[in-house]
Write a structure and sequence with these properties.
The chain has 110 residues and is an alpha+beta fold. It has 4 helices and 3 strands. It starts with 7 loop residues before the first helix and ends with a helix.
Length: 110
């Protein structure tokens, strides 16, 4: 992308300028949440608060659930919500989640 970024806001601005009108990109910032950029909009989403036991694979969990949502046909915003819920649930366990269907059933009721 060129020059180095000095902060999250600068990164969001640089990425936003690089993507086309038909695409969106999701930037994750760990405990600071995420930002969905594209089509002249920026949507920030906070993390779901959790009683954290273990953050092992939290980012991978988010990514997996997000991609599963997109593949299932949900929009980007809903898919990030699913990813954030998976991340919250995963961080409250001593081990990582492995099954999308388990988490999807839990979240459908919330």
């Amino acid at each position: 992308m060129g020059a180095a970024c000095t902060g999250e806001d600068e990164l969001v601005e640089k990425v936003d300028k690089k993507i086309s009108e038909t695409r969106k990109i999701v930037l994750t910032f760990g405990r600071k949440g995420l930002c969905i950029c594209g089509q002249d909009q920026k949507i920030r989403q906070e993390i779901y608060k959790a009683d954290v036991v273990d953050t092992t694979a939290a980012g991978d969990t988010f990514t997996g659930y997000f991609i599963a949502g997109i593949v299932a046909g949900t929009d980007v915003s809903e898919s990030t919500q699913t990813g954030r819920k998976g991340c919250k649930y995963n961080s409250q366990q001593k081990r990582c989640l492995t099954k999308y269907s388990v988490c999807k059933k839990r979240f459908a009721k919330r």
